[in-house]
Amino acid sequence: MKKNNSFPKAYLPIAILLLGGCGQSETPVHSQDTAQLSIQEAAEQGDAGAQTDLGVMYAKGDGVPQNYAEAGKWWLKAAEQGHASAQANLGRLYRDGRGWPEDKVEARKWYQKAAEQGHATAQHNLGRLYRDGRGGPQDFVEARKWHRKAAEQGHVVSQYNLGVSSYKGQGESVDYKRAYAWFNAAAEQGDEDAIKNRRIAATKLDPASLEQAQKLADQYYKSYVEPFQ
Questions:
Q1: Are residues 158 and 129 in the same domain?
Q2: 112 is in which domain, residue-wise?
Q3: Tell me: the pLDDT tens digits for 113-161?
Q4: What CATH number corresponds to the domain at position 109?
Q5: Is residue 59 part of a domain?
Q6: DSSP conformation letters of 147-212
Q7: Is 65 exposed, middle or buried (0-12, 13-18, 19+ CB in 10 A)?
Q8: Per residue in 162-217, pLDDT tens?
Q9: What is the spatial distance between Cα 117 and Cα 111, in angstroms, rounded to a whole number?
Q10: How far apart are CA 93 and CA 91, in angstroms?
């Protein structure tokens, strides 16, 4: 379907922020009823952004009765047009089976599509599916790859997960210096488990190795934490 960019006059796209959930929306300038009607109209005209926003409204019960099946219907339409946030939302519906058929294979498929477009939350969740062997074979190398992509965009839980995989040797050889550096990145964003595990990783290192780990941690902080604060 060709995307229709001619929005009804009152429609303003809602900002989507996927933080492991279905999204958060800014308060529309117009009245809620008018905005919802306008989004509905734009969605019915085939605009992927409006379809995604309308799905968020149904998932949250924002101005409409909460209805995950209806949310999924609109996200599927947008996802099929290549909308990354809709693909990520649809992946979560399939993963969790909340008001929607649970299907981990489909979850992995839609997360993959969004992840390949650089969607950090989808990359993180795809990594989890690979790590846990849900929706396909367990693959720690793939899990680490996708967690790394999300971590490089400042995703704190992926940074923590990379610390765990480095510490345990999942997807790579055991590397306490790298574990320390990734735990530090997550710790600098306030993750309390990362703070504890950073200390544990430090106990595995001799003074010279700890100094190297701290230098690596500083590099990670400057590259993968500081730009996103």
A1: no
A2: 8-138
A3: 999 999 999 999 999 999 999 999 999 999 999 999 999 999 999 999 9
A4: 1.25.40.10
A5: yes
A6: HHHHHTTT-HHHHHHHHHHHHHTSSS---HHHHHHHHHHHHTTT-HHHHHHHHHHHHTS-HHHHHH
A7: exposed
A8: 999 999 999 999 999 999 999 999 999 999 999 999 999 999 999 999 999 999 99
A9: 10
A10: 5
